[in-house]
Design a protein that fits this description.
The structure is a single chain. By secondary structure, the protein is mostly helical. The protein has one domain. It has 23 helices and no strands. Helix 8 crosses helix 21.
Length: about 450
């Protein structure tokens, strides 16, 4: 049978099974194993699977993942998010929509010690949503601000998705971490500006609170003190990466140890059940991600045998069309795929194909990864499979319907599209920090 035809059948089967709800890793393994067995032999498929399992896990990049996952789990168990949210609320008091503004910046701050957007959305769903409802914030406005702010963890280091990008593309993970800082902060600022503008125009979205009028200068200084743990831990990790003091793996180890010491010093991690829970959570997340990555890399090898990536790369690079049109087509495909499959599946399926095309067209790999991550943020909150929205709906309580979360995200998606246009028009926003790394 023709190799390319088998590859096309495999891709169609993969997408069909994803839509039917087959677990991502099992889907990749099943389709790739059967495809390789058809193209070669069942023994070759077994041999290639064993080789993939070894070579994938043996990569030094993989050591980064469990360390930063552990750092995020320890930071969440230590209550860093709660303190950051309270401190930032004191700082933003008297602004229209101050609780939502605190959520935007609090999510950005917590993202510096937690690389999971799902975890960030869940944590702030438990912290911020009850406070907003207590002060009669519009339900959809509150849910939309929390769900979209949670997506910051996909961009602000140490992002778990950047580690996956590094594995699939070979771009150094440390440079990706640093490249995400400015776009992440810029997104938080645009969100905050949008919240203040909307709350000023329609006070019913975020009623002003009398208690805010009594917040004095010393209260704001206390708010800064509530941020010291996150500022210290995030500053050491990101500053060490930027200054060349640490490799990404060493930064993960320093971050995990710092989160452990700060959490024990503050008290929460002195509780053995809470510490055990954080360790169990990080182990579960790490093993799940490892399983998905190995399966995705195995599927990528199957695609390589079919020559589909090579054929598409040759066609797209010889296509008589401007390079920006090719890039736009890739982004549109990602946007559509993000509406029906989870971002990790979309990137695992497409990156082995589209990344060589983008590099061949002359685009900067780091810039392209940041643009792709912005698409990942948008996919995380848009229906029907916006994982951040589902995570928030589960964390906020039984009275929250997923349709209410989705109806509240669109003004923030518009902000994300604005940031995406800025990143496309001005690549220096992304590139100037990694290019200045020591």
């Amino acid at each position: 049978m023709d190799f390319t035809l088998v590859g096309i059948i495999g891709v169609v089967t993969l997408l069909t099974l994803l839509v039917m709800g087959v677990p991502l890793a099992i889907n990749f393994l099943l389709v790739a194993f059967i495809g390789i067995a058809v193209l070669l032999t069942p023994g070759s498929a077994v041999s290639l699977l064993g080789d993939t399992m070894y070579t994938a896990i043996a990569s030094p990049t993989f050591t980064v993942l469990p360390l930063f996952v552990l750092m995020g789990a320890l930071a969440a168990a230590s209550g860093f998010a709660e303190r950051a949210y309270k401190g930032l609320y004191r700082l933003s008091a008297q602004l229209p929509g101050s609780l939502a503004v605190a959520t935007a910046f609090g999510s950005a701050a917590f993202a510096t010690v937690c690389g999971s957007s799902l975890a960030t959305a869940s944590v702030f769903g438990r912290i911020a949503y009850p406070e907003m409802r207590r002060y009669h914030y519009d339900k959809r406005f509150a849910l939309g601000s929390i769900a979209c702010a949670g997506s910051f963890a996909a961009m602000i280091p140490p992002s778990g998705m950047f580690i996956l990008f590094s594995i699939f593309t070979g771009v150094p993970v440390g440079q990706l971490f640093i490249a995400g800082i400015v776009p992440g902060i810029l997104t938080a600022l645009v969100y905050a500006g949008s919240i203040v503008w909307r709350a000023s125009r329609d006070p019913s979205l975020a009623p002003r609170m009398e208690a805010e009028q009594r917040i004095m200068l010393r209260d704001r200084l206390h708010g800064l003190l509530d941020l010291w743990q996150i500022l210290l831990l995030g500053g050491v990790v990101i500053g060490g990466l930027y200054g060349g003091l640490f490799t990404a793996t060493e930064a993960g180890a320093v971050g995990a140890m710092g989160a452990m010491l700060l959490g024990a010093g503050a008290g929460p991690l002195r509780s053995l059940p809470r510490l055990r829970g954080a360790l169990r959570e990080s182990a579960g997340i790490t093993t799940t991600l490892f399983f998905i990555i190995i399966a995705a890399l195995f599927f990528s090898r199957f695609l390589g045998l079919t020559r589909i990536p090579f054929e598409i790369t040759s066609f797209m690079t010889s296509w008589d069309a401007p390079s920006w049109m090719v890039l736009g087509l890739i982004l549109v495909i990602w946007f559509l795929m993000g509406m029906v499959v989870v971002p990790a599946a979309a990137f695992a399926l497409t990156l082995p194909i589209v990344f060589p095309i983008v590099v061949e067209l002359g685009y900067e790999p780091i810039w392209f990864c940041i643009v792709a991550m912005k698409m990942c943020e948008i996919a995380g909150v848009t229906p029907p499979v916006g994982l951040n929205a589902f995570a928030l709906a589960g964390a906020a309580g039984k009275e929250v319907r997923i349709s209410e979360v989705f109806s509240g995200v669109w003004p923030f998606v518009a902000c994300d599209l604005f940031i995406l246009l800025l990143l496309l028009a001005f690549p220096a926003i992304t590139l100037w920090l990694p290019q200045s790394m020591m």
